[in-house]
Structure formats: C-alpha cells, structure tokens
Amino acid sequence: MKLNCKLHDPWVIETDYVGDINFFQKYMDDIEWVDTNKLYDSYDEYHEAMENTQYMNRHYIKHIKNFDMPLKKYILQLFRALGIKSKDWRAEFFLTKAGGNVPMHIDTFSKAVILLPLSKNTGPLVCEKNGNTFELTYQTLTVLNTQNMHGVEPPTEDRLLFRVATHDVDFEDVGMYKELVNAN
After folding, report:
1. What is the DSSP letter of 24?
2. How confident is the model at residue 50 (pLDDT cuts 50, 70, 90)?
3. What is the pTM for the complete model shown?
4. 100: Cβ–Cβ under 8 A, 6 or more apart, which residues?
C-alpha cells in the first residue's frame, strides 16, 4: 500500500487512501452501538478529558474485540504504510449522528489515531494548539495527533468512521510524520 500524504503539522497527516465500507460491514453488523457518554461514564479519565467542556452529543461507538485474520492484516497493512510500530492499540467504529458533535478535548490514553471515513464526512475536524486553529473536513484516511485539542463540529449527515488508536506511539514517532518533516 503506497500512500500520498500531506502533513498539517502539528495536527494531522492527510492521505489519499479511501475506505471501503463493504470490507467493514460484517464487523459492524456483529457489534451494538453504544452511547459514548454511557460507555465511559464510570471512567475518571473520560470525565477529566471532558472537564471544562461539554460532553459528546449524539456520538456512538462500537469497540472491536474479536479480530479475524483479514481485519488484523488490514490494520497491520495500515501500520506498515504509515510507519507505525504499536503493540498497544484499539480499533472501533465511531458514529456521530447528524447534528451531534465531539467537543474539544485531549485524549487520555491514545497518542495518535488513524481515522478512516466510511461515509461522507460533513463535520469538520477542528484542532487547536497555542491559540492556532486548524480545520479539515477529510474524506480520506487521516492520522490525528490526539495530544492536541481536537473535536468535531456538527455534521449535516451521519458521520461514520473506522478508528485505530495507538496508546504507545506518539504522533511525532509515526514514521510517515518523520518522513514528511524531513522532506521539508
């Protein structure tokens, strides 16, 4: 897998890779959607991440717990293409319903995440660091630095994506990030 990439430093790496919902459909069919606020309500870390902000609105999650060989190979292929060497990662589907949102926050556990849209994305990703703001309404695979403030503005259509979060690889340690920084 060869990716054409563009760095929006220090926020995201935008690629030209388009997700195929047909590949993921069987995994989505096997798992129930759960309201994100209800799922994480018992975790102090979630409340700390959402401190001084509103909670997620009309945002749902499906954690993938059982990985078959095709899905494992797919994720490892993405890791290789992006230069990610992670041993501690999670995969899930995110659904933000039309009019919902993900408020500005910094992730507690994940350091960098792969975001792969599986539907038309109409809600811009908003990132902020040191008073600088960046917005991107991405339609292709994007790697996000989750250690900067980020959120999603309300989409006009349901926003569905596949997400792989690394808990042991910082955004700056992603091989593709280093490659793009060294190219400039």
Report:
1. H
2. low
3. 0.89
4. 56, 57, 58, 59, 154, 155
Beta strand 112-117 with 149-152 is unpaired
What is the average pLDDT score of the chain? 90
CA distance 134 to 128: 6
Q: Which regions of the chain does DSSP assign to beta strands (E)?
A: 5-8, 12-15, 34-35, 57-63, 89-105, 112-117, 125-129, 132-136, 142-145, 149-152, 159-166
Instruction: List the domains of the chain with CATH numbers.
Output: 5-183 (2.60.120.10)
Task: Report whether pLDDT(172) > 90.
Answer: yes
Phi-psi region of 22 (alpha: psi -120 to 50; beta: other; left: phi over 0): alpha
From the centroid of its chain, how far is CA 166?
10
